[in-house]
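Convert to structure. Protein one:
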Amino acid sequence: MIKVGILGAETMAAGELVRILINHPDVEILRVASASEAGRKVADLHRGLVGDTDMEIVSELSPEGLDAVFLCGEPWQASRWMNLYDAAAREIGLKIIDLTGAFRGGEYDMVYGFAEHNRKALVRGATRASVPSALALAVETALFPVAKNCMLPPERIRVNISMAEIPMLATTRPNGVPIKASAPFSPTATDYTRSTRLDPIAPREHRPDAEDAAMEAAAELRRIQPSFAAPIEISLSRDNTSQRGMVATIDVAAGMSLSELRKIYDNAYEDHGFAYPVDFVPTVADVANTNKCLINLSYPTSELNASLPALRIVTACDNLLRGAAGNGVHLLNLLFGLSERTGLALKASAL
């Protein structure tokens, strides 16, 4: 069994990790840590886990006795942990998966965790991986087959992403501290700095930053297609009809028929377990609570012609799973040489 520890017990990412890993056939969770919540039960913070675990949160995540560690929370927390335990982790061969975004530039020998592109590096001796931001991963998944075939255009690529808005239902944080004594929270355009949790005081991992994500995605796409030099621009909007998930829409120049493009996408993803080209426009309901990303290709008109502005790529995924914890478990599987779908056969809607 792979013995796992999780830092940042108070975060939604940690809660999602526990939810997945308690049912993972090759994993045993030994410790879940949080300096601010030590002594409390994991299920006190993540109430959906009531009846599934009685684990108590510890104050510090020591690597002793562990095979793998997930770092959740703020980037400074991950940096502090690495500063304290990097040498010890290397000595015992500890595998580390970072979900804070602190090391997406490759610090501490982290492999960038876009597995559809970097799977070889992840299965051939890597011990550390950094989970991409949810927004960047949506763009990378949409454009990977195009970049792999050196077809990204020289023009700026514009992306529109609609992300779920979780309403503010709670009046206190998990530790009982009041959030506000004033009027109920009402989301506005400026609330992108807020959380997808029910808590406005949120870890950075759930504060989508469009500019940072655009630069992150552009950098990864340039590693796939070195000739690509254009910027990426991401526009965000909120979807208040669902509590998780996001849909990305990208219009990009392409001089090929749909049948040719679909073949390129099928070939790019045929041996990967979570990205699926589909012949319908996907929605959040199709992917919520799973690690899947569904991809649809279309032209705005029925035929490709000279006046056609662009190919339209629409992707849907769960920002809390494919964009965070689910991808983290995917990376864990690859680092340990397991089938990438192990523990991740999660159910979406059956409709």
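Protein two, convert as well:
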Amino acid sequence: MNQSGRYLVKWLTSGWLLCAGSAAVQAQQASGADILSDLIGGFVAQNTALTVVVADSSLISLGLMDFDPNEFADFGDLNVGNEESFALRKSLRTYSLPWSFEPQKLSEHWQTSYGIRASYVGSSQDLIYDEPDYINTFDEESFILYGEKNWLYNFSEAWQFTLSMSGQYLYYRNHFDYQDPTLLLLRSFLDGQLLNTSYGVWMVDPAVNAVYRGTLFGQRFDYKIQYRHALGHTIQTDSQSQQTSVETGRFSNTLTFHFDTPELYGRQSQVRTLLRRIDLTGDAVELMGTSHYYQFGVGWLVDTSSPDSWLDTIGIGISVNAGSNLSGGSVVILFNEEM
């Protein structure tokens, strides 16, 4: 990853572009086209898996404002961010709006419910490839539509088991403004495959989770364990090289404490603290730079539910990611989070 006064804030593109550039040169000489095709397929799979993780607010929180947690406390050997991860977080824009429907009772212990989510993930960066005097601009956008059906089984007042079947469609596009003369020579190999391209991805994303609700020192807490496994394939590609499968597993353990606070205009409110560990498998591991990382958070929520409202809760909080290429802190807006 090159730097020249401006950060190459997305290791993904800089790294893949350098490799793809080398492969394109080989393609001009011999059979490097196969190498380039493999690189493009890998880029698509890993970029998609990373976007799935970033778009899921339960796995990564990016918000209104990023900050360096090291300025406020000494975290010792725990990696809560560095210059590269801070720059990457600042380059990313993510918006996610989840909406869940009231559960419907099927029997004494079984319920079913539905949920949908619309998400957007975007980034903008300046890329230095070979000549520091030439700044190439690179913009990416991903749009995600997600839907799920859940089956909930209440073992007792404390334990709940949920099986979910979900699917999502992702549309990705990017725009690269060539300025570097070396890259201009490679444009015919890169455009429509790695750069200045778009593609779609469909995925199934089943999940299973269990939740325990109890009290400790007079305070309510939840412990949730969940496994999700996304598996899909690209569609509507610009080239044969972009046709690839995508797979990533996410295993999370979450401990949440709820502290009731005074009502706000007759509405229930609370402070919520959260500790979470996420383990990854599949295509998301390399770009996250780890197979596991941690998330810490604290937020203030207000109940806004009503019979005609789609917004159940709203609030504001602070989230810190530790141990990944996206380590750092954010101020986040909370929508439809459980109180």
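Confidence is low (pLDDT under 50) at residues 1-15. Residues 11-335 form a domain with the Lipocalin fold (CATH 2.40.128).
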